Every structure is written in C-alpha cells, then in structure tokens.
Amino acid sequence: MAVPVPGGSLAVRAGGDTGPTLVFVHYWGGSADTWNGVLDRLPAGQRAVRFDQRGWGASRALAGPYHLDQLADDLAQVIERCVPGPFVLVGHSMGGKASQLVAARRPAGLAGMVLVAPAPPQPPATVTEEYRQGLSHAYDAPETVRHALDHVLTAAPLSGTVRDHAIRDSLAAGAEARQEWPLRGIAQDITRAARVIKVPVTVLAGENDRVEPPEVLRDHLLPSIPHATLTTVPGVGHLLPLEAPEAVAAALEDFLKAVRP
C-alpha cells in the first residue's frame, strides 16, 4: 500500500491478524526486504508492518529531506495509517535511532521497542568527521558495497540470495538519501529524547559488530534508557536480520510474550 507523507508516499507492506503489531524499520542501506528472514521465522498470522524508508527501495523516488527527524515523522505516519491497536517498534541501526525518536513522543498504542544493533542516542567519540566522510562513500558502487558487506557490516557469511538483495538495496537510493545518514544523522545527539522513553526496551547487539559493538551500546545507549535490557548475539556482526534472523525472531517472540496483555 502507499502511505501519503510530505512530498509523496511511502511503500508499505502489512499482513497478519495477531497482535501486537510489529513495526519494522530498516537500516541505512536496507529496505522492507531486510526483514524477510525474520518474518519467515515468526508464528503464522503475526501482524507486521514494514516499509521502504524515504529515499530507499520502492520509496527511492520520494524527495527529501532525508534527515532523522523526517524519518521519524514518516514512521509516525505509517503507524497512524497502518497500525490498529497495540504495537512494538523494531528498529535496526538507523531505523533504531528513528524508532527512539518516535518512542519518545509516546504514541498511543506503543507497547515496547526492540532495537537491533541500533545507533545509540549519544554518538561515540569514534564517529569523527573523517569516519563519517569515509562512511558516506560505502554505497557508491557495487564494489564498495561488497567491501562494506564483507569487511565491515557482517561477521557471518550471507547466502547468495540474501547477499545479492543486500547489494541491490544498498545501491537503491539517490545520493542525498545515501549521504544524509553518515554525514549528519549518525552524529545527531538524541539523548534528551531517549531519556523520556518509558516503555519496555530490548536491545540486540552482534558480538562481532564493528559498527555498533556491544560496549558502545552499553556506554552510549543504556545510560539514556537505563531500563533497557541488552542481549549479545554470538558470532555475528551488524546485520543481525540477515546474519541471524532466527535469533531476532526468537527475541521478538519472547518480547511479545512479555508485553502482550
């Protein structure tokens, strides 16, 4: 379905009839398809909503701005239009930071949040200008995407199909959408917003994540959301939905049992 937002519409997919609804928000370089493996491992009938964020996937023609606050506004609009009743935000990396901004607004029906290798509210000291400039070129061409996947983003091998889809998704954006997150969004400090999040929060970290290592999340996320629980998934890197979809699905099932009325 198409959800109207400023400048056009977002491509959204919804299905299932058993709640609470899981609202999936993909990473910088991903799409709604990032969650395919996770959804395949959830119980049949689980209600889920996922979408291609502004500038990515089937929403790539949607004009900017692409900044973090706009992504949060878009997410809020998807929730308003597509989510009946209680819901859980499931945000990965960039999508995790946008999810934190939305959770801070305390929308009606929000039952909790699962953050998957999220960008923390307080950027660590390693997010320097030099780092951000280099990151902004990670998706310039197929060869740079392959290098990022093999040497930065993953620690466990991806199947051929999953890897091909990841390469496709990382290239499916215009220059502005590709560069906004690494040049500005990743460095945005949202600790003031994160501190007002009161719903249950579970954080999943990849043991060998080079982008958001477990120690970074302990030092730069947990102080802002102290009631959150942090679980480390062994043997994987930053792309948990692709590297360990079964672990993500199991964590979601456990979380739903805990928050379901």
Automatic annotation (TrEMBL):
SUPFAM superfamilies xrefs: alpha/beta-Hydrolases (SSF53474)
Transmembrane domains' residue ranges: none
Domain of life of the source: Bacteria
The keyword Iron-sulfur appears for this protein: no
Keywords tagged on the record: Hydrolase
One Pfam family, short name: Abhydrolase_6
A molecular function GO annotation: hydrolase activity
Record's protein name: Alpha/beta hydrolase
Organism of this sequence: Streptomyces axinellae
